[in-house]
Inverse folding.
């Protein structure tokens, strides 16, 4: 048989695998060029000779290693030989020369070393050289099978994304390698250290209780904090959150890992840069958190979220100059959840990004439906959304598509969130302000160095933290502080709004200090946005009926 003038024998003769056809007794009827080379013969010299004899033992199974001497007698070659039955009682032998595969003369010892290297690479994290997740969990499983006590320690870098975003991924990789070296050096021998992925590491502490594991975690946190961030200036440092879970005979590695992960999450939720030991309550907290997130997802999909509007009132005239929009969960399910119960959970997940966009879209739709310049909204921006690089463009596109004047929509960023994500806050504020939107720094005065932030952030207004307003009518130090805030804001040309106004005497005190706009239950309670917009045109510009003393805790939007 031939194809385009080329016979099948010619094709097989050019193959990269040694081939030979024999009869049932092993006498060679045909051999290709490579088989002849392996046998140190020509193809013609192979015909009629016994292949088993030439190979020093015929293969008995589909795969068998056969050692043959080389032509010079100076060593051996390792062949992998398979045998397949052909029609008419013939046999087809395939011989693969491992020494040729391994580039010119790798013997069986070198092959063994090569295979060991492959095993090592399969268990090693390529970036840090530590155990990878597969090897670390296998080590945890092995120590659990031995029955001895111990503890699993999980370590996760805090805000590592900022390093990658600001310094670049090569710098992030360098930090990972330096961190691995520090952990390896501080732990010493006897403990399994691995990288589970991303910026999360794990240590199996054999024979160690939870208390001792926390001490190890604290030492490691201190060592990591001393690491300089490449390319940074000033006091930039790396912090680590840790979770500890003890283990003993009968525990599964999956349960131990899950417990340590719950403890790590508790450390993150408590403010980061700390170590937490797993407690059964952490599971309950996590189950509740997952349940809350499920409810929020359902609410987003099925109309279970609503906005309430709190009026901002110009003191002295009682005229409403705008409304702050506050999120509510109204899904009809029990137990009912206040903003303080569901928003913190949402803000610790990416779900808050969807929520913020829903709020923006709903606010813009309302402004489109009621195109009156006097109707203006303020919306809150979460700290997580500050990190969303597409959020500013999303807002600008929605406003342009809706034909809404940007000045009708304002954004409030809490001072705490702005300080935590200063660069992101500055970029977003600049982006939206240049398009005509209003930008306010909420809870002003709550953070250290508040006045410095006025210089660094391109804002149009501030909202004085309610803690400074609570006792403003009692002649306390709050009076001096608020007076200073108002003077500085006036000098910078930015507006001031006071929060938590509960009493008429507070209104009087704030007016004397130069505050012109305020909000609080004394000036107007939040009401459903749909009810506000159902009023006749212009009715929302009038201050609602004043309320008597109402606890400030009820006013806090959450």
């Amino acid at each position: 048989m031939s194809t385009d003038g080329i016979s099948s024998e010619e094709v097989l003769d050019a193959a990269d695998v040694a081939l030979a056809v024999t009869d049932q007794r092993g006498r060679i009827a045909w051999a290709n060029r490579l088989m002849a080379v392996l046998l140190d013969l020509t193809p013609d010299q192979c015909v009629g000779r016994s292949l088993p004899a030439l190979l020093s033992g015929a293969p008995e199974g589909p795969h068998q290693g056969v050692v043959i001497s080389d032509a010079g007698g100076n060593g051996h070659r390792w062949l992998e030989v398979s045998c397949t039955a052909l029609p008419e009682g013939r046999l087809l032998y395939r011989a693969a020369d491992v020494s040729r595969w391994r580039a010119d003369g790798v013997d069986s010892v070198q092959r063994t070393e090569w295979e060991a290297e492959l095993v090592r690479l399969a268990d090693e994290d390529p970036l840090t050289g530590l155990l990878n997740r597969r090897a670390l969990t296998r080590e945890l499983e092995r120590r659990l099978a031995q029955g001895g006590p111990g503890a699993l320690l999980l370590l996760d870098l805090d805000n590592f994304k900022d390093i990658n975003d600001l310094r670049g991924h090569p710098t992030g990789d360098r930090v990972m390698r330096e961190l691995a070296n520090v952990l390896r050096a501080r732990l010493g021998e006897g403990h399994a250290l691995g990288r589970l992925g991303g910026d999360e590491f794990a240590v199996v502490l054999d024979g160690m209780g939870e208390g001792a594991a926390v001490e190890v975690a604290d030492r490691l946190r201190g060592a990591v904090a001393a690491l300089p961030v490449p390319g940074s200036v000033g006091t930039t440092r790396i912090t680590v959150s840790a979770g500890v879970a003890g283990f003993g005979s009968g525990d599964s590695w999956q349960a131990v890992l899950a417990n340590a992960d719950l403890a790590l999450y508790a450390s993150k939720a408590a403010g980061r840069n700390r170590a937490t030991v797993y407690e059964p309550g952490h599971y309950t907290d996590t189950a509740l958190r997952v349940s809350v997130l499920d409810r929020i997802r359902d609410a987003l999909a099925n109309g279970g979220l609503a906005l309430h509007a709190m009026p901002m009132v110009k003191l002295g005239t009682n005229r409403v100059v705008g409304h702050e929009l506050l999120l509510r969960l109204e899904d009809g399910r029990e137990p009912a959840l206040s903003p303080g119960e569901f928003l913190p959970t949402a803000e610790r997940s990416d779900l808050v990004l969807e929520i913020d966009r829903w709020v923006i879209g709903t606010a813009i739709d309302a402004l489109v439906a009621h195109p009156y310049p006097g109707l203006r909204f303020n919306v809150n921006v979460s700290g997580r959304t500050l990190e969303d690089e597409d959020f500013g463009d999303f807002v600008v596109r929605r406003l342009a598509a809706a034909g809404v004047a940007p000045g009708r929509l304002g954004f409030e960023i809490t001072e705490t969130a702005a300080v935590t994500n200063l660069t992101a806050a500055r970029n977003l504020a600049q982006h939206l302000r240049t398009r005509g939107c209003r930008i306010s720094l909420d809870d002003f005065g709550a953070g250290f160095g508040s006045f410095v932030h006025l210089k660094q952030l391109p804002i149009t207004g501030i909202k004085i933290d309610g803690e400074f307003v609570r006792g403003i009518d009692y002649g306390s130090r709050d009076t001096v502080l608020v007076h200073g805030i108002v003077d500085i804001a006036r000098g910078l040309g930015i507006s001031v709004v006071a929060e938590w106004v509960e009493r008429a005497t507070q209104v009087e005190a704030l007016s004397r200090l130069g505050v012109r706009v305020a909000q609080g239950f004394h000036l107007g309670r939040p009401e459903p946005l749909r009810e506000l917009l159902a009023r006749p045109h212009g009715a929302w510009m009038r201050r609602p009926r004043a309320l008597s003393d109402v606890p400030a805790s009820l006013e806090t939007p959450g």
User: Anything to note?
Assistant: The domain at 302-554 is CATH 3.20.20.450 (TIM Barrel). The longest helix spans residues 280-302. The first strand starts at residue 2 and ends at 3. The chain has a mean pLDDT of 79.
